[in-house]
Amino acid sequence: MLQYDPLQYLPSATELPDSDDTPVDNEFQELIPGLLRSILALLWKDRQDWFFAIDMGIYYSYTPGVRPTPIVPDGFLSIGVPRRRNNKGRLSYVLWEENNIVPLIVFEVVSQTYGGEYDTKIAKYTQLGAPYYIIYNPDYSRRDKHEVLEVYRLVDGVYVRQPGDPVWIPEIELAIGTGQGNYQGWNRQWLYWYDRQGNRYPSLEERTEAALQQAEAAQQQAEAAQQQAEAAQQQANQAEQDLQSLRAKLRAQGIDPDTL
């Protein structure tokens, strides 16, 4: 009996465009999700069941004869998929090649050109079924009459705003929130991951800087200890010299210092 495999009739990632060819407005649309990904790479360095993409097309449906159009978030995080699919890396995220695992979180960074983050994209991500939709609007929130950070959770087919900053995401046991920090030479507000107690996880640059500062502090402490040891030795030598001088004076006066 012939076995029917529907996947063989669906296009693969190599046959699909990897993005929608829409250029980003500025570099922060890539740097902001890039920072989140780099911190996860440190936190989850031993895990191989996650994938974080930046400006990559997501294909979740296909109609024969119709050119598919991907959804392209500024970033997204999937859990339960191979971190590396092959030596060349993913060209796009195709649900039927990912065991139909929908990204857990999709991210949008609002830019100068409004991209429908608060309306049309909400509808798209609802259709996709992403459990969390995060909108970060550091520069145009007043224009758009929204908060700088808005985290939405899909509840019964509707995105519900989650209060707070940072916001806890139990599926990954991390919170996401805003914070001031340094990344690739930019000292400004960024999105960061936080632990349950609200402590921010630093970037690699911040970890490196902290390690250098600790090393410098340790070196300074060692040098200070060495100087104190040298000063103590000099005091001991001086005391010995003073003692010998006193003994000599006593002998010159006919007094044996050892009898005192």
Automatic annotation (TrEMBL):
The record ties this protein, via InterPro entries, to: Nuclease_put_TT1808, Restrct_endonuc-II-like, Uma2
| Annotated Gene3D superfamilies | tt1808, chain A
Q: Pfam families given for it? A: Uma2 (PF05685)
Region spans: Disordered: 214-241
| CDD domains per record | DUF820-like
Which residue range or ranges hold the Putative restriction endonuclease domain?
37-174
Q: What is this protein called?
A: Putative restriction endonuclease domain-containing protein
Source organism per entry reads: Aliterella atlantica CENA595
Q: What are the leading ranks of the lineage?
A: Bacteria, Bacillati, Cyanobacteriota, Cyanophyceae, Chroococcidiopsidales
